[in-house]
Amino acid sequence: MRAVVHDRYGPPEVLRLEDVEPPVPAENEVLVRVHATTVSRTDCHIRRADPFLWRLFAGLRRPKRRILGIELAGEVEAVGAAVSEFEVGDHVFGGSAGRFGAHAELVCVPETAALAHKPARLSFEEAAAVSDGAMQALRCLRAAGVRKGQRIVVYGASGSLGTAAVQLARYFDAHVTAVCNTKNVELVRSLGADEVVDYLLEDYTRNGQIYDVVLDAVGLHSFLRCRRSLKPGGVFIATELGRFMVENLVLALATRAFGARRVRFPLARYSKQDVLFLKELLEAGRYRAVVDRSYPLEDVVEATRYVETGQKTGNVVVRVVPG
Question: Model confidence over 86-101: pLDDT tens digits?
């Protein structure tokens, strides 16, 4: 089968398309023929091993997993003997976080993982772009205890996590202030944001408003910058091991015991329960994945370069089966 592989850490050019042995499903696994996947920020972090901390998960000297890709949508090719939820021919979507492998024509996913039957009205490309950002957003909103009537800022509201967080926070009946740049203001407003702040024109930390939660969806914000905009008891949610990694990790530990405001750094977790919840929202028209661009598998290097510009809106999809 064809797969995108990398044997060393580095720029997008370390990725290459190669013929590899197809995986064989264990008795509790589903073999999925991937129709579409995505290039996520997590894929880029792992490929670069940047920050260095990623090597603790991905391999100190070289990648332990040659094939990246954590989101997928496709068709069940085969099932293990113990699988009862899925059958050959089923259209499915979900994630393989922790295992990766979706940047390939075939991938094995445990039946109990974050895998569900694809809503019929969604294309494979749309379905492939659902899981990563939305599941990270759910984890963040739960860590902050977001509920009806609270006021939340989503900083970086036009990315994969940000577009998901805006929609899910509104679903939970919070008042959402979305922060993005000029070109994405109308998109973010269409996702349900109550207020949209163009950070090129205005600094939300200086508008006199006070919030219950600030969610940094892009790893470019700082608790120290926005703490005066948080209510006593308010929560700052960090999501990226990026520019403020050390600061956020230290403050996440320190504010457990001291201070009127807290920093949380929740780790993303993929679960069957969450993907089924997202499926319900999709079928009810309460959620949609935002797709910026779509590339064929052969152009995965170009797709990765684009993701690393930091200019993407929502998700970047890779088509594995031409369509």
Answer: 999 999 999 976 789 9
